[in-house]
Design brief:
With 374 residues, the protein is an alpha/beta fold. The protein has 2 domains: 223 residues, TIM Barrel, CATH 3.20.20; 99 residues, Lyase, Ornithine Decarboxylase, Chain A, domain 1 (Beta Barrel). It is 30% helix and 22% strand. The strands form 2 sheets. Strands 1, 10, 11, 12, 13, 14, 15, 16, 17 and 18 form a 10-stranded mixed sheet that branches. Strands 8-7-6-5-4-3-2-9 form an 8-stranded parallel sheet. A hairpin with a 7-residue loop joins strand 14 and strand 15. The mean pLDDT is 97.
Length: 374
């Protein structure tokens, strides 16, 4: 293999168990977007969460084909034409409006999403009250849950807006329970950041996405968690272990003279004779073009800078200082080598984005190898 990912199943299990211990509530493993780049089928077949969360019919099919037997919630917008096929996969569907509810097959379980401040899916105010009235007068509908999504937990250390959303959701939950009558509703609002920082958001279920893969939702979340640990409000042993390593191999070595142009646009010219290694990975594979002449990789336990522009399927690195390098040597794009480490957060910083984008955009057809490290 020229380029592959290694997924540590032990890390995934550890992270899920960390949230179980922290929250004391059932945990949903969110597998959308190819399990945040970690491989949906691999993760669905290996994990044993209380619930699974996906975004679409296609992801639901992949999860079931991988052997996932847990209750499965389809959280993204779904074409009503696909409702019947989802029903055959024993899925619960998230709906946001009355027309979707009316299009559901008879007996299909669904959770209603309400808008508490995200202004994305769901309704609030009079529009939501109208849906509750409809649900109250149609007790035969298999309404099994109520949910919302926070808009501003991860970007801040002050959770004032999240508190407003929680208050809105609590009010909606009271109305929902009245409308549900004898139907029991699973109420959930917390994704990774809220599950860590806001105990009152945990309710009946927590939806763990980015942090199940061992990544913090944001720097602010990690800072807030450190404050909670210092106060004794969060267990010191709450640790997230990254599960993904991304590795490629040296494809070619080329010694160039000082002043030679390297890559498209001739944007990099070394000031001395340089040994250039070519790696068979580029922006098609998910190694973003914004990493051009910014990022580092790890070769034989040493950092090596990316030089010149990231190409569609290749990048060049400076390995002048790496003794004994040969074609075929492994190169770490994300992960550890020796005492050095490159993280998804490192790449996100160089790119000016978030770790979510870094891992979820790694090309889906690259091999994912399941490992179980200590």
């Amino acid at each position: 293999m020229r380029t592959w990912l290694e997924i540590d199943l032990g890390a995934l299990e550890q992270n899920l168990n960390a949230f179980r211990a922290l929250t004391g509530t059932p945990v949903m493993a969110v597998l959308k977007s190819n399990a945040y780049g970690h491989g949906l089928s691999l993760c669905a077949g290996a994990l044993r969460p209380d619930w699974l969360g996906v975004n679409s019919l296609e992801e639901a099919k992949s999860a079931r084909e991988a052997g996932a037997g847990a209750p499965l919630l389809v959280m993204g917008p779904v074409d009503p034409a696909d409702f019947s096929e989802l029903a055959g996969l024993a899925c619960t569907i998230v709906v946001s409006n009355r027309s979707e509810i009316e299009a559901l097959p008879q007996g299909q379980a669904f959770h209603l999403k309400v808008d508490t401040g995200m202004s994305r899916l769901g309704h609030h105010g009079a529009a939501l009250d109208s849906i509750f009235e409809y649900l109250a007068s149609n007790s035969q509908l298999n309404w099994t849950g109520l949910m919302t999504h926070f808009a501003n937990v991860e970007d801040v250390t002050d959770q004032e807006f999240a508190a407003q959303q929680l208050a809105a959701f609590h009010a909606s939950r009271q109305k929902a329970r009245k409308a549900a009558g004898s139907r029991s509703l699973l109420c959930h609002s917390a994704a990774s950041g809220a599950a860590i920082l806001l105990p009152e958001s945990r309710m009946d279920l927590v939806r763990i996405g980015i942090s199940m893969y061992g990544l913090w939702p944001s720097r602010e979340t990690k800072i807030s968690a450190s404050t909670l640990i210092a106060r004794g409000d969060l267990k010191k042993d709450f640790i997230l272990k990254p599960a993904l390593s991304w590795i490629t191999r040296v494809a070619h070595l080329n010694r160039v003279s000082a002043g030679s142009s390297i890559g498209y646009g001739c944007t990099y010219r070394p000031i001395q004779e340089t040994l250039v290694a070519v790696l068979p990975v580029g922006y098609f594979e998910g190694y973003d073009r914004r990493l051009s002449s910014k990022a580092h990789v790890l070769v034989r336990g040493m950092r090596a800078p990316v030089i010149g522009r990231v190409c569609m399927n290749m990048i060049m690195i400076d390995v002048t200082h790496v003794t004994g390098i040969t074609p075929g040597d492994p190169v770490v794009l994300i992960g550890s080598s020796g005492t050095e480490q490159i993280t998804a957060e490192d790449l996100a910083g160089w790119m000016g984005t978030i770790n979510y984008e870094v891992v979820s955009r790694i090309e889906g057809n690259l091999p994912r190898i399941a490992l179980k490290r200590n």
